[in-house]
Specification:
about 290 residues, alpha/beta, TIM Barrel, about 15% strand
Length: about 290
């Protein structure tokens, strides 16, 4: 099986009470996920609160993650932004030791045209020594990477090997599956639709839920990939309410509340993100107890 088939987890970044990075908590999380049998890890994606971290903090987190992982799982680094020149330079300067690929979200806020998105990823592709995962998340970026642009990039640049699709648009997924190169990977960027996406040909998920419930989620994904959807369905259904709750007041506040309950790391965030409300925390803990 390809090393990027299955469950990837977009790691949260644990923080201490004073807002500094909690490296002990990050170590606990990495080991917790490896013990939970996920297939790969994504460092400093959206769930990792990368937008609140400075350049030095990011470098230390990437290095520490690679050190603790120690080759046990493939690692992907999240490097994105809305300034193409800056992102491309960051990709070029990235010290790839221990990492297998880069995940880069489509530019946010500026709402580029499809040609602008294509040229943005062209620049990143030409700067990178590692394979590239596209990341389409219109709910955060304010613009969609069309199926035509996704497949154009996939055909034109051999180091663009996958897309993390979080558009929620099944017509878009269908078009990508029909028109992509055979070896190009479609990966779910939304936990709730990972199962039906796999039925269309997606090869797995890059998950938020997997931070807290790595075994339950990765067991379900592996069943889907083996074609045993009948056995996977009860597991999928058992995760629906937990998934709804952890996103109810934003990501990653909800999943950090669950991680605190499981004793993996604390639930501090950096502003403008804040902890979940007491009522939601209680609901997440109650649902966690039903599943774990």
């Amino acid at each position: 099986m390809n090393k990027f088939h299955g469950t990837g987890v977009a790691l949260v970044t644990p923080f201490k009470t004073d807002g500094s990075v909690d490296f002990d908590g990050l170590k606990n999380l990495i080991n917790y996920l490896i013990d939970g049998k996920v297939e790969y890890l994504v460092s400093l994606g959206t769930t990792g609160e990368a937008s609140t971290l400075n350049k030095d903090e990011k470098k230390k987190i990437w290095e520490f993650t690679a050190e603790i992982n120690n080759g046990r799982l493939p690692l992907i680094a999240g490097i994105g932004g809305n300034d193409t020149a800056s992102v491309s330079q960051s990709v070029k300067d990235f010290e790839a030791n221990g990492y297998s690929a880069i995940l880069s979200a489509s530019p946010y806020y500026v709402k580029p045209t499809q040609e602008g998105i294509y040229q943005h990823y062209k620049s990143i592709s030409e700067a990178s020594s590692l394979p590239i995962f596209l990341y389409n998340v219109p709910g955060r970026t304010g613009s969609n990477v069309s199926p035509e642009t996704t497949c154009r990039l996939a055909h034109d640049f051999k180091n663009i090997i996958a897309t993390k699709e979080a558009s929620g648009n099944f017509d878009q997924f269908n078009q990508i599956m029909r028109d992509k190169p055979e070896d190009f990977l479609l990966i779910s960027g939304d936990d709730p639709v990972a199962m039906p996406m796999i039925s269309l040909g997606a090869v797995g998920v890059i998950s938020v839920v997997g931070n807290a419930l790595p075994k339950q989620l990765s067991d379900m994904i592996r069943l889907c990939l083996s074609g045993d959807f009948a056995k996977a369905l009860p597991l999928h259904l058992s995760l629906i309410e937990f998934t709804r709750l952890i996103f109810a007041e934003g990501n990653p506040a909800g999943v950090k509340a669950a991680l605190k309950h499981f004793g993996v790391c604390d639930d501090h965030l950096r502003l403008p993100l804040v902890k979940v409300s007491p009522a939601l925390r209680e609901a997440i803990i109650a649902e966690s107890k039903k599943i774990s």
